[in-house]
Design goal:
The structure holds 2 protein chains of 2 kinds.
Chain A lengths: L11 H10 L4 E2 H11 L8 H14 L2 E7 L5 E7 L1 H28 L1
Antiparallel strand pairs in A: 1-3, 2-3
Chain B lengths: L13 H21 L4 H12 L2 H12 L3 H18 L1 H30 L10 E8 L6 E2 L3 H10 L3 E14 L6 E8 L3 H5 L5 E2 L14 E4 L1 H8 L9 E4 L2 E8 L13 E4 L16 E6 L5 H18 L1 H4 L2 E7 H6 L2 H33 L1 H9 L4 H37 L13 H26 L2 H4 L15 H33 L9 E6 L9 H16 L4 E8 L9 E6 L10 E8 L3 H5 L3 E4 L10 E5 H7 L9 E4 L8 E7 L14 E5 L7 E7 L7 H11 L5 E6 H8 L1 H35 L1 H9 L4 H30 L15 H27 L3 H7 L1
Parallel strand pairs in B: 4-9, 6-8, 15-20, 17-19
Antiparallel strand pairs in B: 1-2, 1-10, 1-11, 3-4, 3-10, 5-8, 6-9, 7-8, 12-21, 12-22, 13-21, 14-15, 14-18, 16-19, 17-20, 18-19
Classes of the chains: A alpha+beta, B alpha+beta.
């Protein structure tokens, strides 16, 4: 069952976006495709929340954006990670891992 | 240069948004076509999947919109929640700020009313006091002759109008008993200059301003209510003052209190009256209204030209006169300005101490909230949003504090009125919109001052990584900033206390002064007189003698005298005198204070005669007494008695022989050493003369019999202002006393705040280090060592604060130097006492947390781990 956006912790989407953009410059459509592919279709991000998130991250200076040509020669807006974004991603990842580890720990202990 | 752009969020244009979203839809469409749909179907599905294009655009715009209102409301809500959740913290902050802002607003309300607001007359800043001054002497400024006023008014080009006034006390006798009234005799154009119309009735008519015209008068609102019960039919009634009967033509508004708040009646003096033609007469205090747009300098230059012209025209009387102009407001406010700014400086220091205190509290608080803040960060809140929320909390606290402060300020304005009734314009002090705005402004400044640093510190990035980290194993968090704040508070408190200490000592010195006369057991009183009576000097002298004889006959009265001005209360009348025998050029000019007293004055005031005899109340050449300072200054090593003094402009003609030398008395104010003084014998009482009675017992015990006796011999005169001489002194010192009381109050508050700060910070440090202490105790540390360690930490910071405070005080107390008597602004004894006092209080404030630290039970703490 795909997890709807509302079930995603706020901040998790941001982290996913940062992680995907970290692989190289990519446009919004590409990001939505990647999220679907990587998460094996479990997470489905509504386009409606993807773009505001992108713009919010850009405004915070974690993403940088540039207009360029897509693979098929169309004009598209490409996002890439800024130095600030890289730091943020690192700290969010470690936080997330600690949290996830703790949750897993609890689940195992309770079992 | 585009650095400033970083202040504004980058904004995607509408078109860019469109093309970005369009790209996505096109890609989706292609994907669908690839999956085998028809192009139309593919596009329809793509749009459906993508969601509302416009909705998304709106969401995107939202990203760039700063939602001030919503976020403010949310912040306010969370601020109130925060305050409810931590009541003791909030109450401490609100009380501290309430005290700080309240004291500040209260002093500001006085400054606003007295110094900042224009005088309560239309275009009050155009009103100027105009004085004439003899160029050859330092002083005096003399009153202006009516003819000269008319000439100034006619010949100048910078004033709309000028007028003059003098006051005298009269006895109104149309009622059953004579009633003392204060009457202002005013020159032409009086109301025109003030720009004030009567609240009822009319201004003087032109006939009433001419010799032989009807006698008219305006009455004050106060007198109207007191005497006529506010009867609207008062206009047209008659009052009898002395020999004249006046018709009431108008009632002035309640706010019109000029020349002073005691004036009951205003009556015009016709400019063409035959008494008013002498250029030598000294009648009027002059006030003029500048034309719009004319500066004081222009008016000064203009009147100088006018007076120079008069000097050529009337060389005998006008050659040596110059004109001085100063704004009426300045003249009214006088010396209160200095005191008020000193008070304002003190309350600002106090507010700073309060702020510092709160910064320390908030910092301690922020450490406790570190966890909450980390959680918010990891949930994606921006640093700006968190800072805004923290600041909103501080602002709400500051606002509540300001409200409390306003309540305090309201109370303070009545304290001002009762403590310093002699302060100019004190009746204008009240709470109004400006004060509310000021307090609001204070709370904003306080919010930034107190809130910004803690908010920024607690949202630093390295702290946000603290989620999940518990400070359990940390030995201690040393926080140099908090200790710095405590030091600053102590320093500021020492500064204030030093100022208060100096004022207190100076006040005490003043009480110990040897005045040169005996001021206890003296009753002073005034008897209504008018200037008109001085026309018949012989008759006046007989009446004066009769009154004095009657007073001496009252049982319990040992001696009676008259004096112009009250001994020991500032009243300066300094002039230059010449010596009839001539003086060498090289010798200093003779400048002396002049006092007008009856011969019985020396006996009554117990001023010893050192040589010669008391002054002669003779008709012929007057004999004068000089004091010892005079003799020492101008006749060093030679005999002063027998020389003849010539007064250049005192109205006395002829040579006055020096017949006696008296001891020095502090005539011109208890805080001033006696200046060279000449006592002129004035055997007559004039308006403003004081009768001085030496009584056997308490001065007021004879009050009723004295009143009765005067009524017996002078039934048409009223007796007023009857009180002990020493009461006049405390009036003269009222401003001094107000300053001292308020500054002491502020200083004590400051020291208490600083100690609360020290106590709070040390307690916090003890709390944080409980585990460390427990561990050390478990490892065998002695409790005494623990106490010593914390105590010395508190004392060390206080000592550094005191040292800094000493330096600050050295700078601050210099401001006070003009207000001190008998103590130097850098008086080491005062400073050391202050520092000692602060250190003692600091010891107590440190001792309690230190003892608490030593009471830690090691086992319990370690078990808590």
């Amino acid at each position: 069952m795909p997890i709807e956006k509302s079930d995603l912790l706020q901040g998790t989407l941001d982290m996913l976006i940062l992680k995907i953009v970290a692989l190289g410059p990519v446009h919004g459509y590409g990001i939505s495709l990647r999220i679907r592919q990587i998460s094996k279709e479990v997470l489905q991000v509504q386009q409606g929340s993807l773009y505001p998130a992108l713009h919010r991250l850009e405004k915070r200076g974690w993403l940088a954006a540039e207009w360029g040509e897509s693979e098929k020669g169309r004009q598209a807006k490409f996002y890439k990670l800024s130095a600030k974004g890289r730091k943020q991603l690192a700290s969010e990842e470690s936080n997330w891992k600690r949290l996830a580890g703790a949750v897993v720990n609890i689940l195992q202990t309770v079992e | 240069m585009t650095w400033w752009r970083s202040f504004f969020p980058k904004r995607a244009s509408d078109e860019q948004m469109n093309s970005e979203l369009r790209f996505h839809i096109e890609e989706l469409t292609e994907e669908n076509i690839a999956a085998g749909m028809t192009p139309e179907e593919a596009r329809r599905r793509a749009i459906l999947e993508f969601g509302g294009h416009e909705q998304i655009k709106e969401d995107l715009r939202d990203v760039y919109r700063v939602r001030i209102v919503e976020s403010t409301i949310a912040n306010l809500k969370s601020a109130f929640r925060f305050i409810r959740k931590s009541p003791s913290f909030s109450i401490t902050v609100i009380l501290t700020l309430g005290l700080g802002i309240g004291a500040n607003s209260a002093v500001f309300s006085a400054i606003d009313a007295i110094l900042l607001k224009p005088l309560p007359f239309p275009d009050g800043d155009q009103l100027m006091v105009v004085e004439q001054k003899h160029v050859k002497v330092d002083n005096p400024v003399t009153a202006v002759a009516p003819v000269r006023l008319e000439e100034w008014n006619r010949m100048n080009s910078t004033f709309q109008a000028m007028t003059g006034y003098f006051t005298e006390d009269g006895s109104e006798t149309s009622g059953i008993l004579p009633e003392k009234v204060t009457q202002a005799a005013v020159g032409p154009r009086f109301l025109q200059v003030w720009g004030v119309a009567p609240a009822m009735g009319r201004d003087f008519s032109s006939e009433e301003l001419h010799e032989g015209g009807p006698d008219a008068m305006l009455i004050s609102d106060r007198f109207w209510r007191r005497r006529f019960g506010g009867d609207p039919g008062t206009i047209g009634k008659k009052l009898r003052i002395g020999k004249n009967s006046y018709t009431i033509v108008g009632v002035m508004p309640a706010s019109f209190l000029f020349p002073n708040r005691d004036v009951d009646l205003w009556s015009p003096v016709p400019a063409d009256s035959k008494h008013a033609q002498d250029r030598r007469s000294t009648w009027y205090s002059v006030v003029g209204r500048l034309k719009p747009g004319i500066s004081v300098e222009q008016a000064r230059a203009n009147l100088a030209t006018v007076q120079a012209q008069l000097g050529r025209q009337y060389p005998e009387t006008d050659e040596d006169l110059s004109v001085r102009i100063k704004p009426l407001k300045e003249a009214t406010v006088g010396g209160a300005r200095e005191s008020l700014w000193v008070l304002f400086g003190s309350v600002t220091l106090l507010l700073l101490i309060a702020c510092t205190n709160i910064v320390a509290l908030l910092l301690a608080r922020a450490t406790q909230r570190q966890h909450e803040i980390s959680v918010r960060f990891s949930l994606g809140a921006g640093r700006g949003a968190i800072v805004a929320q923290l600041l909103t909390e501080t602002f709400v606290l500051a606002l509540l504090g300001a409200m409390l402060g306003l309540v305090m300020a309201t109370g303070a304005s009545s304290v001002f009125r009762s403590l310093a009734a002699s302060l100019p314009r004190v009746e204008e002090i009240r709470l109004d919109g400006r004060i509310v705005l000021y307090s609001l402004g204070c709370s904003l400044v306080v919010t930034l001052l107190c809130g910004l640093l803690p908010a920024l510190r607690s949202t630093r990035k390295n702290l946000s990584g603290g989620l999940g980290q518990v400070s359990r194993t940390q030995v201690s968090t040393r926080n140099p900033l908090q200790w710095l704040l405590v030091g600053v508070q102590v320093a500021l408190a020492v500064t204030l206390l030093a100022g208060a200490g100096l004022l207190l000592r100076s006040f005490r010195e003043l009480g110990r002064v040897s005045t040169g006369f005996d001021t206890s057991h003296i009753l002073t009183l005034e008897i209504s007189m008018s200037w008109g009576e001085t026309a018949d000097m012989k008759g006046l002298r007989q009446r004066t003698d009769r009154i004095l004889e009657a007073l001496r006959s009252v049982p319990g009265v040992d001696a009676a005298a008259i004096s112009v001005g009250v001994p020991g209360v500032p009243y300066e009348f300094e002039t230059e005198l010449k010596l009839a025998e001539g003086r060498a050029e090289a010798e200093p000019k003779i400048i002396a204070e002049n006092r007008y007293v009856s011969a019985s004055y020396f006996n009554t005031m117990a001023i010893p005669m050192l040589a010669g005899e008391v002054c002669r109340e003779t008709e012929g050449a007057p004999g004068v007494v000089v004091n010892r300072s005079f003799a020492n200054a101008y006749f060093p090593g030679s005999e002063a008695i027998g020389h003849h003094l010539v007064a250049t402009n005192l109205g006395y003609s002829g040579n006055a022989e020096i017949v006696g030398i008296s001891g020095d008395a502090r005539e011109a104010g208890l805080e001033r050493a006696s200046a060279p003084t000449v006592y002129w014998c004035a055997p007559v009482a004039e308006p403003g003369s004081y009768f001085l009675l030496r009584t056997e017992n308490g001065p007021m015990t004879v009050a009723e019999s004295v009143r009765g006796k005067i009524h017996e011999v002078e039934p048409t005169r009223s007796v007023y202002d009857m009180r002990p001489l020493e009461e006049h002194f405390s009036d003269a010192l009222a401003e001094n006393r107000l300053r001292t009381i308020l500054l002491s109050f502020f200083a004590v508050t400051a020291v208490s705040l600083a100690c609360i700060g020290l106590y709070g910070t040390l307690s916090y440090a003890v709390n944080v280090r409980r585990r460390e202490v427990g561990l050390r105790l478990a490892l065998g540390a002695l409790r005494g060592q623990i106490v010593k360690q914390f105590l010395f930490q508190g004392l060390g910071v206080s000592l550094l604060g005191c040292a800094a405070g000493w330096l600050l005080a050295a700078a601050f107390t210099r401001v006070l130097s003009g207000m001190l008597y008998g103590v130097s602004p850098t008086d080491a004894v005062t400073l050391l006492t202050v520092i000692l006092a602060v250190m003692i209080v600091a010891t107590f404030a440190s001792l309690f947390p230190a003892i608490r630290a030593a009471r830690v039970e090691p086992m319990q703490v370690l078990r808590d781990e």
